[in-house]
Specification:
The chain is an alpha+beta fold. It folds into 2 domains: 136 residues, no CATH class; 89 residues. 58% of the residues lie in helices and 11% in strands. The protein contains 9 helices and 6 strands, in the order H-H-H-H-H-E-H-H-E-E-E-E-H-E-H. The strands form 2 sheets. Strands 1, 4, 5 and 6 form a 4-stranded antiparallel β-sheet that branches. The longest helix has 28 residues. The radius of gyration is 24 Å and the shape is elongated.
Length: 246
C-alpha cells in the first residue's frame, strides 16, 4: 500500500504550504483552501482526463482491492479512492505548475539566490569541485596542467570530453558537488586534511579540481536549499493567483 503514503504526504505538504504562505507576508490560506484551489485548477486543466492519471487511478484501485479484506466491498473503499484521487490531482498540478518549472528556470534560481543570500549561510567551509582518478602519476600531472586556470565546469567538461571517450576510458570522473568534511574520503584527505582515501585498483592516482569556499558563491553551491526556497516562492505566487480568481 505504498500509494497510501502519498496521501499522507500531501496532507503534510498542504500544512507546510499554509505556513510558508503566511511567512511570505501574504494572506495565509488553510490547508483545506489550498487543497480546493489546487484540485479545482487541476480539473480545469484536464489533469484527470489524461491517460497517465487514469492509469495511476486504476493502479491504485487494484492495489487497494488486494489490500483490503473485502476488496471493493469494504466500507472504506470509496473514501480511500477519493482521497487518493484528490492527492493525485494535487501532485500532478503542483508538478506541472511549480516543480517542473523550477527545475528548468536557472535564471530564476540564480536571481532567487542573489536576492536571498542571507538565507543560505554556512557554518563551516565547503569544497566545490570534483574528484578525478587516473591510472598513473604522469596522467594526473598532465591533466592538472591541462585544466589549470579553467573554471570548475569547464575543467569537468574538458576531462569528460578528452578522457571518457567511448573507445577508451582513461579516468574515473566524479560529479561536481559541494562537499563538507566527512562526505568524501578523497576530498577529506586532499582538502580538509583528515583521513586517507582508498585508491581504486584500476585508477590508483587521484586529485581534486575546485576550490574551498567560506560561503556559497553561486546557487549550485546550495542547490537543494535554493530549489526548495524557490519552489515555495513560486508556489506562494501561484496560490495567490488562484485565490484571486473569481
Amino acid at each position: 500500500m505504498e500509494k497510501l503514503q502519498l496521501i499522507i504526504w500531501f496532507t503534510v505538504v498542504c500544512m507546510f504550504q499554509t505556513l510558508a504562505y503566511a511567512q511570505d507576508n501574504r494572506k495565509p490560506l488553510s490547508g483545506e483552501r489550498i487543497e480546493l484551489l489546487k484540485t479545482t485548477e487541476a480539473i480545469r486543466q484536464g489533469v484527470d482526463t489524461t491517460e497517465h492519471f487514469r492509469e495511476e487511478m486504476q493502479r491504485f484501485r487494484n492495489e487497494l482491492r488486494r489490500g483490503l479484506e473485502q476488496g471493493e466491498n469494504d466500507p472504506e473503499f470509496p473514501a480511500m479512492m477519493e482521497e487518493f484521487r484528490k492527492g493525485l490531482l494535487i501532485f500532478e498540478i503542483t508538478n506541472r505548475e511549480v516543480w517542473m518549472k523550477s527545475y528548468t528556470d536557472t535564471a530564476g534560481l540564480r536571481l532567487f539566490f542573489e536576492q536571498n543570500k542571507d538565507r543560505f549561510r554556512w557554518d563551516e567551509p565547503h569544497f566545490r569541485g570534483f574528484v578525478v582518478h587516473s591510472q598513473t602519476k604522469s596522467d594526473r600531472e598532465r591533466m592538472q596542467a591541462e585544466t589549470a586556470g579553467l573554471a570548475i565546469v569547464e575543467a569537468h567538461t574538458f576531462l569528460k570530453t578528452n578522457y571518457l571517450r567511448e573507445d577508451t576510458i582513461q579516468i574515473k570522473l566524479g560529479d561536481i558537488k559541494t562537499f563538507t568534511k566527512g562526505q568524501d574520503e578523497y576530498v577529506d584527505e586532499l582538502i580538509f586534511r583528515t583521513g586517507k582515501g582508498v585508491p581504486y585498483l584500476e585508477f590508483p592516482r587521484y586529485f581534486v579540481i575546485g576550490e574551498l569556499r567560506e560561503q556559497p558563491q553561486e546557487y549550485p553551491d546550495v542547490l537543494a536549499e535554493v530549489m526548495d526556497g524557490y519552489q515555495q516562492y513560486l508556489e506562494s505566487l501561484w496560490l495567490e493567483q488562484l485565490d484571486q480568481k473569481k
